[in-house]
Write a structure and sequence with these properties.
Blueprint (H helix, E strand, L loop, with lengths): L2 H4 L5 H7 L3 E3 L5 E3 L3 H12 L2 E2 L11 H12 L12 H15 L9 E5 H13 L5 E6 L3 H10 L2 E10 L2 E4 L1 H7 L4 E7 L11 H14 L2 E5 L25 E6 H5 L6 E5 L2 H14 L7 H9 L3 H23 L3 E3 L6 E5 L8 H12 L1 E2 L1 E2 L9 H5 L3 E5 L4 H11 L6
Parallel strand pairs: 3-14, 5-6, 5-8, 8-9, 9-10
Antiparallel strand pairs: 1-2, 4-11, 6-7, 10-11, 12-13, 13-16, 15-16
This protein binds pyridoxal-5'-phosphate.
C-alpha cells in the first residue's frame, strides 16, 4: 500500500484544514504545509536574524522554582502522579482563584491538571463538542483552536476582533449574529494572543449574554492572566453573575512563570464538565509532569514572581512599540500578553506574509504574519493582511538591537 493510501483515513485532514495547514498542489493532491512558526524560526536560524516570531522567553523563570523541581526529582516524584493532578497543586490552583478573583473552586472535583493549556483546551473540545455543533471563537485565534475544532467535527464560527483607537475590540453585534441554536461552546481568550486585547466589562457581559441565550458552555483561555499593563485588568468570565455554572477556565504555568517547556496547565469548572474533560484527558496523556507539579504548586502561592514579570514586560513592550512606530509601522499597543501587532502598510508593504519572508534580509528581524491566526477568506484575514505579530518576551538588549535594525527599513 502506498504511503498516500495509508494516510488517507483519520481526522488529521480536518485538523490541518482547521489550522490552515492543508495546501492543495496544482495536480489536486493535498499536503500539510509546515507551520509558519517553523518556517520563520528556520529562516531566523539560516539568516542570523533576531527571532521575534515565536513567543517564548529567552530567560528562564525564577531559579527557586527550578530548584523546587530539581528537589522534587531528588525526593522521588518520578512515577505517575494521580490522574487529576497532585492534591497540593489542585489546592494551590483553587487558592489562587480565590485569592486573586474571589472564585470558589473545589480542588477535589472541579480542578484538573493537564499537559499545558493546549491539552486542557483539546480535551475540553473533544469531550464537549462534535458533528452538528458550532464553536464560536474570536478571530484571529491561537492556532491550536482551529486544529482541534477540526478534529471534533464541529463547525468553527470565528468572530472578528476589530482594530480601533483603543486596540482590538469585540463587535458584540457580530457575536450575536454568529450565534445560533447549534452554538454549543464559545471559546474565548483574554488577554488575547495575538492582538494583545484584554476583554473589558462590556465585552465579557456580551459574551455571557450570548452564552446564556444559546445555553452554551464558555471555554476561556486565560494563560496570560498575569500579563496585563497600565490600567488594564484581567477579569475571568467565570466571575460574572451566573457564569461559573457554564464556564471552563483554562490557564497554565508556562507563560506566568516563564517555564513554557514544563507544560503544566489546568482547567476548572463545574464538576460534571470536569469529569467529562478528565475522561478524555486520561486517554490523551493519562497524567502530566510529576516533578513539575509540586514546583508549580509552590510557585502559584507566590504573587511576586508574576508581578515582577509583568513589570519588566511593560518596559519591554514600550521599547518595542516605540521602535516599531519609529520604523514606520502602525502599532496597536497591547493591553496584555507579550505580543504587539504592527501594520506594514504605511511602509509600503501590503502583504504581511511577503514582508515576513523579506524582513530578515531587509532588517535582520523575524516576525509572524497575522493572517497565520486567521481562517482563509474571513473578514479578519482581509483586515489583517498587512499586519505582523512581534513578541517582546526577549531580553532588553535583544529588543534594542532589533529596534536598531528595524530603523534601517526603507521608508523608516
Ligand atoms: C502559549 C499559549 C497556549 C499554550 O499553553 P501551554 O501551557 O504551553 O500548552 C494556549 N493558549 C494561548 C493563547 C497561548 O498563547
Amino acid at each position: 500500500m502506498s504511503a498516500a493510501r495509508l494516510a488517507a483515513g483519520g481526522g488529521w485532514r480536518a485538523a490541518a484544514r482547521g489550522s490552515g495547514l492543508l495546501r492543495v498542489s496544482p495536480d489536486g493532491t493535498e499536503h500539510v504545509a509546515s507551520t509558519i512558526f517553523a518556517e520563520m524560526s528556520a529562516l531566523a536560524l539560516r539568516t542570523g536574524a533576531i527571532n521575534l516570531g515565536q513567543g517564548f522567553p529567552d530567560v528562564d523563570g525564577p531559579a527557586w522554582i527550578a530548584e523546587a523541581a530539581v528537589q522534587a526529582v531528588r525526593d522521588g516524584h518520578n512515577q505517575y502522579p494521580p490522574g487529576p493532578g497532585i492534591a497540593e497543586l489542585r489546592e494551590a490552583i483553587a487558592d489562587h482563584q480565590r485569592r486573586r478573583y474571589d472564585l470558589e473552586v473545589d480542588p477535589g472535583t472541579e480542578v484538573l491538571v493537564t499537559t499545558g493549556a493546549t491539552e486542557a483546551l483539546a480535551a475540553a473540545l473533544l469531550a464537549l463538542v462534535g458533528p452538528g455543533d458550532e464553536v464560536i471563537t474570536l478571530e484571529p485565534f491561537y492556532d491550536s483552536y482551529g486544529g482541534v475544532i477540526g478534529l471534533t467535527g464541529a463547525r468553527h464560527v470565528p468572530v472578528a476582533l476589530v482594530a480601533s483607537p483603543t486596540g482590538f475590540r469585540l463587535d458584540a453585534a457580530a457575536l450575536r449574529a454568529a450565534a445560533s441554536p447549534r452554538t454549543r461552546l464559545i471559546l474565548i481568550n483574554t488577554p488575547h494572543n495575538p492582538t494583545g486585547a484584554v476583554l473589558d466589562a462590556d465585552e465579557l457581559a456580551a459574551i455571557a449574554q450570548v452564552a446564556t441565550d444559546c445555553d452554551a458552555i464558555v471555554l476561556t483561555d486565560e494563560v496570560y492572566e498575569h500579563l496585563t499593563y497600565g490600567d488594564s485588568v484581567h477579569v475571568p468570565i467565570a466571575t460574572l453573575p451566573g457564569m461559573a455554572g457554564r464556564t471552563l477556565t483554562v490557564s497554565s504555568s508556562g507563560k506566568t512563570f516563564s517555564f513554557t517547556g514544563w507544560k503544566i496547565g489546568w482547567i476548572h469548572g463545574p464538576a460534571e464538565l470536569i469529569t467529562a474533560v478528565r475522561t478524555v484527558k486520561q486517554f490523551l496523556t493519562y497524567v502530566s509532569g510529576a516533578p513539575f507539579q509540586p514546583a508549580i504548586a509552590r510557585a502559584l502561592a507566590d504573587d511576586d514572581a508574576p508581578r515582577e514579570l509583568a513589570a519588566s514586560l511593560a518596559a519591554r513592550r514600550d521599547l518595542l512599540c516605540e521602535g516599531l512606530a519609529a520604523a514606520g509601522f502602525a502599532v496597536t499597543v497591547p493591553q496584555g500578553t507579550y505580543f504587539v501587532v504592527a501594520d506594514g502598510a504605511p511602509l509600503g508593504f501590503p502583504d504581511g506574509a511577503e514582508l515576513c519572508r523579506r524582513l530578515p534580509e531587509l532588517a535582520g528581524v523575524v516576525a509572524i504574519p497575522m493572517t497565520a491566526f486567521c481562517s482563509e477568506g474571513s473578514p479578519a484575514n482581509a483586515a489583517l493582511r498587512s499586519s505582523l505579530r512581534f513578541t517582546f518576551v526577549k531580553r532588553p538588549e535583544v529588543l534594542e538591537q532589533a529596534v536598531d535594525r528595524l530603523s534601517r527599513l526603507p521608508g523608516a
